[in-house]
Design goal:
Helix content is about 5%, strand content about 55%. It has helices spanning about 75-85, 135, and strands at about 10-20, 30-40, 45-55, 60-70, 85-90, 90-95, 100-105, 110-130, 140, 150-155, 155-170, 185-195, 200. The chain has a ten-stranded mixed sheet with strand order 5-4-3-2-1-12-11-8-7-6. A three-stranded antiparallel sheet has the order 9-10-13. The model has no long low-confidence stretch (mean pLDDT about 95). It is globular and about 50 Å long. It has one domain: Acetoacetate decarboxylase-like. The protein is mostly beta strands.
Length: about 210
């Protein structure tokens, strides 16, 4: 599909590193995701995001993406338009050193947003979000770019995962507390298949 016309649903394929964190600020759970999509409706792109849960929404507490940068303008445009995901543009620089992968992520103006390193270990096992109750995998995002209401998106994913070790060398320009936090669990997911459906739009409902 051409990047000028990329409405939902989207099916994306790639690989990811997902780090889960315990209590952070006022959120019970946080997740850092570093993803390399090899294909999507807007082509390949890289992504770094920080999400927390639970967050208040018109349908009760739900996960919400707070900080996110991607490597293409098409992903920025359609992520904001389709699902209210507050994407910004960044440049990703990848480097492989033995079994360690490093990535430096820079803002368009050139300053460093984040510097991460990770390595994988152990056996790979299949993983899926299918057993997870919908409320725990439904993103609730306020609409962006002058639109009103909320967008509710139940995300589904499958892949194969193995243990990983993540080191946050710098995150001052992205989410500074990550330099002091330690993840409870870090997984490297290969053969990732991620589905973002058409969201449900909710307007004029007070937060619970």
């Amino acid at each position: 599909m051409h990047a000028d016309t990329a409405p939902p649903p989207w099916t994306l394929h790639g690989r990811a590193v997902i780090a889960l964190y315990g209590k952070h600020a006022e959120a019970a759970l946080g997740a850092l995701m570093l993803v390399r999509y090899k294909d999507s409706p807007v082509g390949p792109y890289d992504e770094l995001l920080w999400a927390t849960a639970p967050n208040p929404s018109p349908v009760g507490p739900r996960p919400q993406v707070h900080n996110i940068v991607v490597s293409t303008e098409a992903s920025v445009r359609w992520g904001r338009h389709n699902w209210g995901i507050p994407k910004g543009l960044a440049r990703f620089e990848w480097q492989q050193e033995g079994q360690t992968t490093q990535v430096r992520i820079h803002a368009p103006e050139g300053h460093l947003l984040a510097h991460l390193a990770y390595r994988t270990r152990g056996i790979s096992l299949p993983v899926s979000t299918i057993p997870v109750p919908a409320q725990f995998r439904t993103l609730a995002q306020p609409a962006l770019d002058g639109k009103t209401g909320w967008l509710l998106t139940p995300v589904n994913a499958v892949g194969t995962a193995q243990s990983a070790r993540l080191t946050v060398l710098d995150a001052a320009g992205f989410h500074a507390p990550l330099m002091q936090l330690r993840p409870l669990l870090t997984l490297a997911v290969q053969e990732l298949r991620l589905v973002f459906p058409v969201p449900e739009r909710v307007d004029g409902v007070a937060l619970e």
